[in-house]
Amino acid sequence: MESWIIRTKNLKKYYQLGEHTVKALDGMDFLVREREFVAVIGTSGSGKSTLLHMIGGLDVPTDGEVYVAGRNLNEMNKEQLAVFRRRKVGFVFQNYNLVPDLNVFENVVLPVELDGRYVDREFAEEILDFLKLKEKQEALPGTLSGGQQQRAAIARALVSKPAILLADEPTGNLDTATSHDVIGLLKLAAKQFQQTVVLITHDNDVAQMSDRIVRIEDGRIVERSGAEREKDQGTKGSCMDGSQADAQADGEKQEEKGGASHAEK
């Protein structure tokens, strides 16, 4: 049985602008396996950031369901969603969002401290060392390069040991070489610390560094990467829609076989 850590089912997010309805997400079934590194790519306005906000509990859908780490986000109230975000989701954004008056180490452990939990200093230092920031622990963000600031933001996302890590255009403010360095380290860190990553980007070169690429247009999934199609041929059920995943989760063998056959086509 596949271990789906993220699953959306017929996910919709509509906005009303005057007489017009904007369909940011239009019935999307999106699946991510545990410890997978997935890039979601699309042009501006395609719905990729909206999808990330739904998965991270930052916004609520118009219709459909979102499951993360076995939890149905639709069933949570605002307070429960806030706790869920703090403890189960690591966020990395384009603008780093580091507190300028705190040094690197203080920024990294800040979310854990604000949540009232024990700070595992040894684990935090291990992450900083892995991300090549060991010598910068006491430095203020303003003294760091853009790449170093984004690595500090990645460390902050990892230190709370989340179920998933969501990165929204994390290389948007970086040059090409630094972008590749940062994403390379993010991928290595995800493997080292056993994380599931969903990366939102418009950069094809950055997306190619992922395990799998999902392309979105007009709020719908329109294309999977060649690598994913190859996985389909070698692994039954490696890419299925939401209904097939439900059938598999319910243990309905007949449906599971049908899903696998469909994925192999």
Write a concise keyword list for the protein shown above.
265 residues, alpha/beta, Rossmann fold, 6-stranded mixed beta sheet, 10 helices, globular
Kindly summarize this structure in a few lines:
This protein has helices spanning 48-55, 78-88, 104-114, 121-130, 146-159, 176-192, 204-207, 226-234, 242-249, 253-264; strands at 4-17, 20-33, 37-41, 63-68, 71-72, 89-93, 164-168, 196-201, 212-217, 220-224. By secondary structure, it is an alpha/beta fold. Strands 6-7-8-3-9-10 form a 6-stranded mixed β-sheet, sandwiched between helices.
CATH superfamily placement: P-loop containing nucleotide triphosphate hydrolases
CATH architecture: 3-Layer(aba) Sandwich
Instruction: Give the tally of β-strands.
Output: 10
Query: What are the secondary-structure elements, in order, as H or E?
Result: EEEHEEHEHHHEHEHEEHHH
Number of helical regions: 10
Helix-and-strand structural type = alpha/beta
Helical content (DSSP H or I, runs of 4+): 25-40%
In the predicted model, the low-confidence regions spanning at least 5 consecutive residues are 226-265
